[in-house]
Amino acid sequence: MAHTLAFINPRLSTQNVGDLFIEDSVKRILCYDRLNSVDIDPRLPITNVDIARINATDAAIIVGTNLWYRDLPRPGRWQFTLEDLRKIRVPIIPMGIGTTRHEGEDNGFEPETLAQIRYIHQRCTEGSARDGRTVEALQAAGVRNVRMTACPTLFRTLLPSWRLNGKAGRQVVVTVRKRQKQNARELIGLLRSAGREPIIAAQQSKDRDVRYRRPWLRRKTPLLYEYDVWPYRRIVEQSVGAIGWRLHGNMLHLAHGNRAMFLANCSRAESFCRSLALPYVYCPDRRRLSPAQIEAAVETFFDAGSYSAFPARYAEYYQAMADFLEANGLRHNLAPQAATGQHRAAA
């Protein structure tokens, strides 16, 4: 019989479409009782009713997101207290959680955050981290039962192997970020001048401001911003891949065999790319890239050799994700270790 699960799920009140990609992938990976499982919003005040609903399930899954901030508790981010967590009687299992560190920051946590992270990991056999920097931060905090698994979004297709699909086409998705407006505009202009057809994919409302103010330039650059996974899946099929600043927007393309070039504004994409042997350019917010840097990023994006080391890393962390789930007694839809297969687009 499938487990009933309580999904500690930031998607419920998020302002970032990327959280939808993560939830969608987590719920594709896990086998669970869909009728009796529940979703709990960690961004809203936690009530005794929430705690009771969690305790009526077999386990609480913290749905993978960028959550292990230096200072975790905050309205609109995480409203569990340590006392709330202590009332939960079932295992609390972090799945693909990441941290954020900006240029010059260390891996430390504030005392309340540190206490919560340690307690959460005490309540499970093993926690799962998105990237190497997150593992380093957790281990420095005294957490030993953590395994790097990458992000659930990477394994959305459920396939155990990856290959670049090598699609031909002119459409390229640009995953934009509001604090990278000028860089994004120059990237879009370069793609257009090279005969490509850029599509802007926004994940937050303010990302839409990246588009040019002149109406005729706006009309030339289609914009996608919807609070729904499926429009973004459609452009995965239509395009050759994604280049830009949104970690999970790019990862959705990568999961389905498209090219993906990451422009890393902080440790999230930088550490993910280093861990997975993926191409990236470090580009903190409000720092201008030179035309040569942008041109080199586009060339790297189209070079199939940029992804030569990735299939082995994909297979390694696919298995790590399966091992993590099995260590916690969670049923899943990932293939057995011996399985092989061709990477293809999945629904």
Description of the molecule:
With 347 residues, this protein is an alpha/beta fold. The chain folds into two domains: 5-159 and 314-327, Rossmann fold (3-Layer(aba) Sandwich); 171-307, Glycogen Phosphorylase B (Rossmann fold, 3-Layer(aba) Sandwich), CATH 3.40.50.2000. Helix content is 36%, strand content 15%. The chain has twelve helices and 14 strands. The chain has helices spanning 18-29, 48-55, 82-86, 111-122, 132-140, 181-193, 215-220, 229-238, 247-255, 267-276, 291-302, 310-327; strands at residues 5-8, 38-40, 59-63, 66-68, 92-95, 98-99, 127-129, 146-148, 171-175, 197-201, 223-224, 241-244, 259-264, 280-282. The strands form four sheets. It has a six-stranded parallel beta sheet, sandwiched between helices. Strands 2-1-3-5 form a four-stranded parallel beta sheet. The protein has a two-stranded parallel ribbon with strand order 4-6. Strand 9, helix 6 and strand 10 form a beta-alpha-beta unit. Helix 1 (18-29) packs across helix 9 and helix 6 packs across helix 11. It is globular, with a radius of gyration of 20 Å. The model is unreliable at 338-347 (pLDDT under 50).
Strand proportion, as a percent range, falls in: 5-15%
Total discrete domains: 2
Arithmetic mean pLDDT: 93
Counted by DSSP, the helix tally is 12
Low-confidence sequence ranges: 338-347
Give the neighbour order of strands across the main sheet. Answer: 11-10-9-12-13-14
Q: SSE order in H/E notation?
A: EHEHEEHEEHEHEEHEHEHEHEHEHH
CATH topology of the largest domain: Rossmann fold
Computed CA radius of gyration, to the nearest angstrom = 20 Å
CATH class of the largest domain: Alpha Beta
The total of beta strands comes to 14
Helix content: 25-40%
Largest sheet: 6 strands, parallel
| SS class | alpha/beta
| First-residue to last-residue Cα separation | 25 Å
CATH architecture of the largest domain: 3-Layer(aba) Sandwich
- Rough shape? globular
